[in-house]
Amino acid sequence: MISADIKIETKKKPEKEEKAEGEKVKTESEEKKKEATPVEDSHNVVLDFQKVSKIYQGSINAVDDVSFKVKIGEFVSLVGPSGAGKSTLIRLLTREELPTSGRIYVAGRDVTQLKFKELPYYRRKVGIIFQDFKLLPKKTVFENVAFALEVAGISNAEIQDKVPKMIEIVGLTSRIKALSEELSGGEKQRVSIARALIHRPKILIADEPTGNLDPVTTWEIIELLFKINRQGTIVLLATHDKEVVDALQRRVVTMRDGKIVGDQMHGKYIL
Ligand SMILES: Nc1ncnc2c1ncn2[C@@H]1O[C@H](COP(=O)(O)OP(=O)(O)O)[C@@H](O)[C@H]1O
Ligand SMILES: [Mg+2]
Question: Measured in angstroms, how far is the CA atom of residue 82 from the centroid of ligand 2?
Answer without folding.
Answer: 6
